[in-house]
Amino acid sequence: MNPRYATGPGNGRFSQQTYVQRIPNSQSQQQFQQQVWMRRNESSPIEDGNQNEEEKRVQSEVVDPSSQDWKAQLKIPPVDTRYKTEDVTATKGNEFEDYFLKRELLMGIYEKGFERPSPIQEESIPIALTGSDILARAKNGTGKTAAFCIPALEKIDQNKNAIQVIILVPTRELALQTSQVCKELGKHLNIQVMVTTGGTSLKDDIMRLYQPVHLLVGTPGRVLDLTKKGVCVLKECTMLVMDEADKLLSPEFQPSVEQLIGFLPPNRQILLFSATFPVTVKAFKERFLRRPYIINLMDELTLKGITQYYAFVEERQKVHCLNTLFSKLQINQSIIFCNSVNRVELLAKKITELGYSCFYIHAKMLQSHRNRVFHDFRNGACRNLVCSDLFTRGIDIQAVNVVINFDFPKNSETYLHRVGRSGRFGHLGLAVNLITYEDRFNLYRIEQELGTEIKQIPPQIDQTIYCR
């Protein structure tokens, strides 16, 4: 992609400006930053009454004040030294500072442990900042969440008491996770983030909306409900992000999403992110997106770092086979998928009886219980989690290095999202599929559709393929 982008409508601070890919080596950082700030001031004239205050703010943000060491004062987590695949390392070499983000946002980015942008972030962030619509397709676990959260936080005016960004997601767990990422990235900004999903108190959400909210993360049904009631006011909401867009445009969610768009102002910007884009997305794009910028980083569908095996077993042998895997594999954390709620609970009981620590989660559990399981598993309280497909979408738990399909999925899309729970952000992972006689046709079809190879499991699995 061309490293320069002509800007369009959107953030006033970016109008009549170009995005420069790298700071030229011949120029000192300080001179370059000062020129940038001067261009910013020229491109958005300030009314006389606010001029002195604005000048002081700009001066305080130039990289000078006792400076260059603002980064040194941050609480940056230890560098992740694990091996990473080119899914996240094949970048153009950009830095987050190249995007002229607010200093406070950069502080949150670095304190979150982000070192430099991943390919999807390099492609998305500068385009999103210009106000253009985006249709972005990238693999699971390559940094899509930050690719839309960073420009969303940058464009919010914290002095304006109004919802300015909505992020829609298909599941409650993903809503909680995304809102947490927004809070962590924006912790040095005075931006109020709220999460709202079904299964929680509507009254509490209504009360919360009477207080300032700048960024709202939620599931479509609940957000639409609050909007129709008149408590979620969207007339100042100029950015709508749809994460896992293929799921949000399924018959279950699409009517709510389309109704919600009707409440947004005419100058709204829509960003669609997903790993898979079925035909429904094309029709939606033509109706609602205006000359969208298309990003496709899917030269292949499965992640490079995930090794996939199958074990051919009879149904009655599955638990014994799982026990063998637990004893042989080097598991940091594992997610084990079943095709029904009933089987999730039965399998969790069996695993506990075998003497292994195990949680389970599915859609029929109380929301408070689901939240507790999700929180505890993410924090490492348990090694194994049995779940239904509730947990396939976007859930990011870095320690998961093994995914086991106890029940083999029926379609390639579900398979892709399941195995994408391991090998997050370019790290290595292992997917083991327990295949019965009835599953053999599905196995072959999914291999063909994804253009991948699922090999027969060897007697011994080399630890370096999923533990480096």
Automatic annotation (TrEMBL):
InterPro entries listed in its UniProt record: DEAD/DEAH_box_helicase_dom (IPR011545), Helicase_ATP-bd (IPR014001), Helicase_C-like (IPR001650), P-loop_NTPase (IPR027417), RNA-helicase_DEAD-box_CS (IPR000629), RNA_helicase_DEAD_Q_motif (IPR014014)
Cellular location(s): Cytoplasm, P-body
GO molecular function terms attached to this record: ATP binding; hydrolase activity; mRNA binding; RNA helicase activity
Record's catalysed reaction(s): ATP + H2O = ADP + phosphate + H(+)
Record-listed E.C. numbers: 3.6.4.13
Main localisation: cytoplasm
Low complexity: compositionally biased ranges: 26-35
Limits of the Helicase ATP-binding domain: 125-295
Gene Ontology biological process terms in this record: negative regulation of translation; P-body assembly; stress granule assembly
Chain positions covered by the region annotation Disordered: 23-66
Residue span of motif Q motif: 94-122
Record's keyword annotation contains Transcription regulation: no
Keywords: ATP-binding, Cytoplasm, Helicase, Hydrolase, Nucleotide-binding, RNA-binding
Residue ranges constituting the DEAD-box RNA helicase Q domain according to the UniProt record: 94-122
Residue ranges of domain Helicase C-terminal in the record: 305-465
One term under GO cellular component: P-body
Keyword Secreted tagged: no
Family: Belongs to the DEAD box helicase family. DDX6/DHH1 subfamily.
Biological role stated in the UniProt entry: ATP-dependent RNA helicase involved in mRNA turnover, and more specifically in mRNA decapping.
Name under which the protein is recorded: RNA helicase
Organism, as annotated: Amborella trichopoda
Organism lineage string: Eukaryota, Viridiplantae, Streptophyta, Embryophyta, Tracheophyta
